[in-house]
Amino acid sequence: MADMNDKIAQLENFIMKKCLWQFHSRAWDRKNQNENILRMTGELLCGETVNTDSPTDRCYWVDAAYLADSFREKFDWLASMSNKEIKALFVALKERMDFVTVDGSLNAELTDPRY
Prior knowledge:
Number of strands: 0
Number of helices: 4
Distance between the termini: 44 Å
Radius of gyration: 14 Å
Strand content: under 5%
Largest sheet: none
């Protein structure tokens, strides 16, 4: 079975290749999307009810539903994880995505105050 870092890398690789939401041009957009889409994906994988009350929530939910379905299909090791382990995995994945797409990014547009 893959260790936590390997699992994070597999999920990150999928997101970076298959999802466009991490490429928004503002740091706060990227962080909001990382937070909400990945949180909702974890909730869906844990069988929890996801809040879709607002239009923004529904937008995040669409991406989360795609990720949850894709992750279930491609990463069979998720089925052997407890809900607690999945939650921890998605917290760590969110931290990694924040680093890759914002905090560690060399894209100067992300921090341009005029943008």
